[in-house]
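User: Could you go from structure to sequence for me? I need the amino acid at each position, not a summary. Structure tokens:
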């Protein structure tokens, strides 16, 4: 996973945000953008939050004509990518 970055490619711009945290288990990747879903591990303490942040982020991105995706590897971290148009979508 690369460092945080931003790059343009034609009519799109990609913003990459990376961390070096625990990563997301592959069997949980499909659900992390669903409302009220939080990645949990057996050894985790219960953490606060409702599990809405990624669901809201993805919906806000969609409303701007953008997408949010994630690549992750356990014990190595995650990279979230916001891919958005250079200009607002026509209504």
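Assistant: Here is the amino acid at each position, in order:
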């Amino acid at each position: 996973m690369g460092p945080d970055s931003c790059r343009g490619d034609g009519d799109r711009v990609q913003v990459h945000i990376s961390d070096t945290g625990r990563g997301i288990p592959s069997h949980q990747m499909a659900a992390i953008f669903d409302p009220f879903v939080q990645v949990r591990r057996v050894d985790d303490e219960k953490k606060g939050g409702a599990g809405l942040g990624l669901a809201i982020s993805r919906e806000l991105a969609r409303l701007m004509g953008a997408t949010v995706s994630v690549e992750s590897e356990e014990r190595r971290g995650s990279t979230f990518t916001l891919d958005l148009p250079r200009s607002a979508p026509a209504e």
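One structural detail worth keeping in mind: The chain has one domain: 5-85.
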